[in-house]
Amino acid sequence: TRILKTSYHSPNFATKEFLNLSHVDFNDCQEMHRNELNELQRWVVDNKLDDLKFARQKIVYCYFSAAASIFSPEMSDSRMSWAKNAYFTIVIDDLFDTEGSVEELEDLIHFVERWDVDIEAQCCSESVKIIFPALKGTICEVSEKAYAKQGRSVTDHVIQIWLDLLYAFKKEAEWRRENSTPSIDEYMANASTSFALGPIVLPALYLVGPKLSNETVHHHPEYRNLFRLMSNCGRLLNDIQSCEREMKEGKLNAVPLYSIEKKTTKEASIEQIRRLIEGHRRELMGMVMQKSAIPKPCKDVFFHMLKVLHLFYRKDD
């Protein structure tokens, strides 16, 4: 047995050359990540997004989630798309959670729907005048890079992803304005979009490498299910951690909605929601591991995001 084992032993295993190469590769990757973060911080300033005082400045967190999930050097475009779009989801969410009005949300929706808009000629708030051009520029940038990899235009799809999120934000705003209490099913149907992972993950998939056909991204049930499972896990993880604060603020949250509908205590609701999260996680893992029409590198991104969500919402929101 010893002779058979040693016959397969490589004399070059763990040599200094390999260790030196791995050290150089690690340093090169870290340098690339530092450069990308510096570029993102300049991008925030160049687009005057730091002038939006109501918004949490979370570009470092956004980039960390991207770099921790898709870290290899060749994934630079995908990381940058992830980080920029994640930053916009926070800014726009903060706008309508703090000082924003329904009119501002409707203006932003209107401009994204029309697309070719001279924003300076429009009657809208300064916040919208800052956000829309920067968002449009990012969508165009991501779509242009995706065209080089996909061999087709994905601009309309990326715009629609953003519109879906804005429509979901509008639905939540209507519930708040009307003091309406949706059922848990109605809440989760909207929350799978309003949790805002669509603009973060879906455009980034176009930049991972494998080609995704128009048929796949619009009609393949597995693509939709991967997104639904990931988003629902994220929404529920967040709601468990934020339920005390949001209940005091009068905001909608899955925990009290579940308690009302199922006539259970908060503690029992949280326990049941944790079981739902675990079920969704296992189902998503099974889909990622199985061979299918969705390329494995793309399915991995859904699972990587799910791991980030568990990290971010382990203790608080």
UniProtKB/TrEMBL annotation:
Requisite cofactors: Mg(2+)
MF GO annotations: magnesium ion binding; terpene synthase activity
Any one Pfam family match given in the protein's UniProt record, by short name: Terpene_synth_C
Residue ranges constituting the Terpene synthase metal-binding domain according to the UniProt record: 48-282
Coiled coil: none
Database matches in InterPro entries: Isoprenoid_synthase_dom_sf, Terpene_synthase-like, Terpene_synthase_metal-bd
Keyword field: Lyase, Magnesium, Metal-binding
Gene3D superfamilies (alphabetical): Farnesyl Diphosphate Synthase (1.10.600.10)
Keyword field contains Magnesium: yes
Record carries keyword Magnesium: yes
SUPFAM superfamilies according to UniProt: Terpenoid synthases
GO cellular component, one term: chloroplast
UniProt superkingdom: Eukaryota
GO biological process: one example: gibberellin biosynthetic process
Stated family: Belongs to the terpene synthase family.
Official protein name in the record: Ent-kaurene synthase
Origin species: Genlisea aurea
